Amino acid sequence: MQAKNLAAFVLYSLLTIGCSRSTEQAADDHAAKTERATSQTSTAELSLPGMKPGSMPAGCYLRAVIDGKKWEATEMTPDRSHPSLIPVNGKNGAISITFVIGGMRDNVGKPSNLSEMNTITYWGGGGFFVGAKSGQVTVQKMDDQFIEGTFNFTAEKDGKKVTCTNGEFRIPSPLPSPSN
Q1: Residue pLDDT tens, the chain, 180 long
Q2: pTM of the prediction?
Q3: Cα–Cα nearest to 169, from 73, 52, 68, 66
Q4: Vertex 90, ends 88 and 95: CA angle to 5°?
Q5: What is the CA radius of gyration of the chain?
């Protein structure tokens, strides 16, 4: 149950980009409570919203070098129903990475710097859960089939630091909006 709460919080965090400072503080408070509640949870219990164990869409990937070690998601949850803010997320064992990208084609090739309101959420297991605010995401290619890009980040919390370099992703493009 605690893992479901964490997963719901991650999804909630992704959907609240652009919130007011009071909402951001409430989200930070909720994240702290969730972290305390899940610090004893087995990492095997953690699942991202809608993710089926072992699910990996054909042709998709999310990979990076985390603290000098190669990492690649073995499970991903594409959400093709949101063409303007598109979630990118993946999990492998105890580690998961989640962030959103803009769906506008005119943003291709333009780096998006991380900030208070634009973070990459990193779950490293063992109670280490942090929103990275230093780094960037760049959509390199966007067509009718896939969206591809790169990312990197550095995050620090409670004296523990994580560095992610050489991040790459490929996710399915959103489905076209139905015509009225």
Answers
A1: 444 444 444 444 443 333 333 334 444 444 444 444 444 444 444 554 444 555 778 899 999 999 999 999 999 977 777 778 888 999 999 899 999 998 888 789 999 999 888 899 999 887 778 888 899 999 999 998 999 999 999 988 888 899 999 999 999 988 776 654
A2: 0.70
A3: 73
A4: 130
A5: 16
